[in-house]
Amino acid sequence: MKMFDSDRRASKVPRIAETASRPFESRQTVRTKIVATIGPACREEESLRGLVEAGVAVFRLNMAHGSIPEHQESLDRIRRVSDGLGRPVGVLVDLAGPKIRLGELPGGAIECAEGAEFRFIRGSETQQPDEFVTTYATLLDELTVGDAVMLADGTISLIVEECTPTFARCRVVQPGLVRSRQGVNLPGVKLSVAAMSAADWQHAEWAAGAGADFVSLSFVRSAVEVKLLKELLRTRGSVARVVAKIEKREAIDNLESIVDAADVVMVARGDLGVEIDVASMPMVQKQIIRVCHRYQKPVIVATQMLDSMQHSRRPTRAETTDVANAILDGADACMLSGETAIGEHPRLVVEMMRRIASATEQQYLEDRWQYLDGHFSKSRGPVGIPAAEFLPPPEFLVEGLHPITQAVVDGASRIAAELNAKLVVVASRSGVTAIARSKRRGAVPTIGVSDSVATLRQMSLYWGVTPLAAVESPDINGLLEHVSAWGLREGRLERGDRILLVAGIGFGTGGHNMALVHEV
User: What is the structure's pLDDT at 392?
Assistant: First the structure.
């Protein structure tokens, strides 16, 4: 009996709507996952434990800062916390990518006044207050007159007015204070820099050997770059999922092929908001999330989500609205960066994000639970509710998912809602069946059961999925007893509740071909 199936790819997903017949219960757990960046403010084991208890599902290791031994120590601490709490926690290794940075500045900082002129020169250092050097050796070869150069995450803007073999003269059009090692962005300039530096290759190899659950590629420009990282990880025995960070104009131009190649996508709004018109950022975020849903790919929204809470104990109203809108757009996870890495209130900010997600999901899921009488309209979505309140059905199956599995998952979702089931249980060795269930945004909570530790950690990122380790070599009855006992112990189930199990029974269909109703 093969309860942990996942299989071949297909082109189209059956369009089956999930319906429901009872109100959403606010006691249910928060579905949107929280990714938190480790830094000086939270790297100690007790702090990490507190963040997991507050709601963190995945920790991010930012390879742009710190050494491999430091990151190894953080990863070891995460694993100990995860084991101690009996809760799978994912680890995302974030490769720095070809980020262009300024070199050291005289005095450490320079005021760029409006109208002032500065020269970018070759080399690794300068003592002149009107000269800049960068980490990108061929910068002067790729700049042309009229190009924009953005410094300090886009807060300072210069225009190239003269190019020579030895320098590029620029004029400041948006002033500000720039510091050593701050980032340089070149919107619209096509760079020849490789997708992964030597340091990135070293970090990726370490991530593979250390058992990272996700590895993200920064400044992705094409699907080929994503596939190269996948191949690097596979040849080193890693099952890590590859995250494509969308933060370049070229990535938007090649969005569909990049999403298709990636396992997970991140809307990295920091550099992306500099590379494109910042006024278009909200709609580009929605576009990326829609494409991810079409391809059944989990998507993370990142950067400055609760940025003011680095110092404040409360977010701004705009920040809470930003988090809520990302969830309503269809984000699977929201990521905290400086808020947890260097902020003054790491746990408080995680608790706030969880509160915002809970309030947003409650209204969203109450709408899903409205009585729909089994009707569905392609033009308006479920009868009586505007289509905008629902994610449309995915168009493509995630890699490894059999079309029979998708159909059974959709059918089980409808049955679970109509029978007032408390849980949908998905048995999945690779986790792709859990993704299929997650991307349909079912109102009934999902339990992802697997006998693979790596899969359980990866499922911690998927919207609405609670990972649960399988018992050894379970049959269907043993699996149901295991889930029932867990649900009763955790307060998720009561005697008489119904659960829906999706699994495979081994008749050669190649996918999960069974949906079973069980009463606790």
Answer: 66
427 forms bridges with which residues in the sheet?
449
Dist. CA 293–CA 299, nearest whole Å: 8
What does the chain come to in residues?
520
Domain with CATH 2.40.33.10 in the chain: 100-185
Model confidence over 402-433: pLDDT tens digits? 888 888 888 888 898 888 899 999 998 899 99
Q: How far apart are CA 409 and CA 501, in angstroms?
A: 10
Burial grade of 418 (CB within 10 A; 0-12, 13-18, 19 or more): middle
Asked if 18 and 442 touch (Cβ cutoff 8 Å), the reply is yes
308: left (phi over 0), alpha (psi -120 to 50) or beta: alpha
Which residues in the chain are classed under CATH 3.20.20.60? 33-97+195-356
Q: Where are the alpha helices (DSSP H) in 330-345?
A: 338-341
CA distance 407 to 15: 9
Architecture label for domain 100-185: Beta Barrel (2.40)
Question: At residue 319, does pLDDT exceed 90?
Answer: yes
- What H or E segment, with its residue span, contains residue 173? strand 167-174
H-helix or E-strand containing 504?
A: none
Query: Cβ–Cβ contacts within 10 Å for residue 277, how many?
Result: 9
Euclidean distance between CA atoms 474 and 469, whole angstroms? 11
pLDDT at residue 167 is higher than 90 = yes
Q: Which DSSP string do the residues of 276-313 spell out, in sequence order?
A: S-GGGHHHHHHHHHHHHHHTT--EEEESSSSGGGGT-S
Non-local (6+) Cβ contacts of 491 within 8 A are: none
- CATH number belonging to domain 382-519: 3.40.1380.20
60 vs 430 pLDDT, higher one: 60
- Inform me whether the pLDDT recorded for 520 exceeds 80: yes
Residues in a beta bridge with 335: 35
* Across 483-488, average pLDDT: 94
The closest alpha carbon to 167, from 122, 104, 115, belongs to 122
Q: Which tokens belong to 438?
A: 């997650």
300 contacts 265 by C-beta, under 8 angstroms? yes
Query: What is the spatial distance between Cα 514 and Cα 408, in angstroms, rounded to a whole number?
Result: 7
Tokens of 226: 């994503």
Run of H or E including 373: none
CATH fold of the domain at 33-97+195-356: TIM Barrel (3.20.20)
Give 365-405 pLDDT, tens digit per residue. 776 554 333 334 333 444 443 333 345 678 899 888 888 88
What CA–CA distance (Å, rounded) separates 135 from 124?
A: 7
DSSP state letter for 134: B
Q: Cβ(448)–Cβ(428) under 8 Å?
A: yes
Residue 479 belongs to what H/E stretch?
A: helix 476-490
Residue partners of 280: CB distance under 8 A and separation at least 6 = none
Average pLDDT over residues 266-283: 92
Which residues of the chain does CATH 3.40.1380.20 include? 382-519
